[in-house]
């Protein structure tokens, strides 16, 4: 669905321009906005996809391609592994373990959690924001899980 839009460069990273006021920040990009740098990487595995309908409430492209994983690491390397803010849909394995203990839930780690764990070990950042779990709370290591909270980033 998003692939139907042409790819443009915006503030240093790739986007899909949906219309004049809506843009899709693509996976694995670093954007420079008002002197702040942002790394974005959307997507996550649906844990209830057996109840969803493909193309309506579930999409095969929910998980990144191998090329997107590689491009994300390459862009972070170009940024010398330093960004101000990280915005992702899901989190690292380390954060997942913390969330599972806090919420008393079971969820297996997948390739995205491992990918973010690898990044987390190298990255210098001010704050990491993610969602996916439908809760709001602070985690160790400058991470914050967002659901309904609205925050000022800078």
TrEMBL record:
Keywords: Ribonucleoprotein, Ribosomal protein, Transferase. It is an enzyme of class 2 (transferase). GO terms for molecular function: succinyl-CoA:3-oxo-acid CoA-transferase activity. The keyword Transferase applies. Its EC number is 2.8.3.5. It comes from the Bacteria. GO terms for cellular component: ribosome. This is Ribosomal protein S12. It comes from Paenibacillus illinoisensis.
């Amino acid at each position: 669905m998003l692939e139907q839009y042409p790819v443009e460069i915006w503030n240093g990273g790739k986007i899909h321009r949906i219309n004049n006021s809506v843009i899709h920040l693509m996976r694995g990009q670093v954007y420079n906005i008002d002197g702040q740098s942002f790394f974005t990487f959307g997507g996550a595995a649906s844990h209830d996809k057996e109840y969803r309908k493909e193309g309506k409430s579930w999409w095969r492209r929910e998980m990144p391609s191998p090329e997107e994983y590689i491009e994300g690491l390459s862009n972070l390397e170009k940024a010398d592994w330093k960004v101000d803010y990280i915005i992702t849909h899901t989190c690292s394995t380390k954060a997942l373990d913390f969330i599972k203990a806090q919420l008393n839930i079971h969820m297996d780690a997948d390739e995205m959690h491992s990918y973010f764990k690898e990044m987390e070990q190298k990255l210098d950042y001010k704050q990491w924001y993610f969602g996916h779990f439908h809760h709001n709370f602070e985690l160790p290591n400058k991470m914050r899980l967002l659901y309904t909270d609205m925050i000022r980033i800078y």
